[in-house]
Amino acid sequence: MLDDLKANNRRWAERKVAADAGFFKRLVGQQAPEYLWIGCSDSRVPANEIIDLDPGEVFVHRNIANLTPPQDANYLSVLQFAVDVLKVKHILVVGHYGCGGIAAAVDGQRRGLIDHWLHPIREVCHEHQHELDAIPEERTRLDRLCELNVIRQVRNVTSDIIVQDAWARGQNLCVHGWVYSLGTGLVTDLNVTVGGREELARLEDEDRP
Ligand code: ZN
Questions:
Q1: Residue 100 CA to ligand 1 centre (angstroms)
Q2: Of 153, 161, 160, 90, which is closest to residue 120 (Cα–Cα)?
Q3: In the chain, what are the domains?
Q4: What pLDDT digit, counting tens, does each position of 11-25 carry?
């Protein structure tokens, strides 16, 4: 069962050791990533590969449609550990164009539990209805919703008390919003970076419908 994957794993580990004999031994000691990646579970959006980082360099949280619900214990635990213990310097909220979660949130079909998970996207859609209705082409409209969703999730992260308290302590921490293109492999910075409480007001202006 899954022999190909096991063989892949052995070859990968051998390549790592061939390039750097102490690679795994160092990682056993500790992880000290500077980045927290919050991205979509989509198999085409692998965090480490997209930003070309090795194991140990990025702490990763992925869920459908890269959401940061303020009541989700899984996300909050990741955020707290990354900020309070690992002391990451950057949080990257990364959406992607062509996100199936974004499309499913607003296509009116019923799928069950996932409809509840995707509820925050319908709220974003509702709040920006005017802007979205003005975009005639569906693909373009959904891609804009991907961007608006990232901006909203950045706002969730920056307004969370874990991040607020880190800034109050003087901790160096920036939160960024990116969107990844499946078609080109490139990320676009949405320029909604927040590095402290005083910058939050600007982001709230951006997010205003
Ligand atoms: Zn997605």
A1: 5
A2: 153
A3: 1-30 (no CATH), 31-206 (3.40.1050.10)
A4: 999 999 999 999 999
